[in-house]
Amino acid sequence: MTDELLTVREVKAMLKIGHTKVYDLIRSRELPSLTIGRSRRISAAAVRAYLASRIDLGEAA
């Protein structure tokens, strides 16, 4: 596996949104994630796919 795993804080900074919005995206399954212990991780590929889907739909993140 070569894909980087990001923290919620890193995704938040990358998308320039709040942590509540990141967790909302995770809860709604728009942004797939996994839990390792008590930590939530999101793959960089999942973030890219989310952005691509939003851009394809002509929506802002």
Question: Could you please describe the fold and organization of this structure?
Answer:
Strands 1-3-2 form a 3-stranded antiparallel beta sheet. It is globular. With 61 residues, the protein is α+β, with helices and mostly antiparallel strands. The chain has helices spanning 8-15, 19-27, 44-56, and strands spanning 5-7, 34-36, 39-43.
Strand content: 15-25%
Molecular shape: globular
The biggest sheet, with number of strands, parallel, antiparallel or mixed sense and barrel status, is: 3 strands, antiparallel
Distance between the termini: 27 Å
Find the count of extended strands (DSSP E, 2+ residues). Answer: 3
Order of helices and strands: EHHEEH
Structural class by helix and strand composition: alpha+beta
Low-confidence stretches: none
Instruction: Quote the average pLDDT.
Output: 91
In DSSP terms (H or I, runs of 4 or more residues), the helix count works out at 3
Which strands sit side by side, in order, in the main sheet?
Answer: 1-3-2
Global Rg: 11 Å
Question: What can be said about this structure in brief?
Answer:
The protein has 61 residues and is an alpha+beta fold. It contains three helices and three strands. Strands 1-3-2 form a three-stranded antiparallel beta sheet.
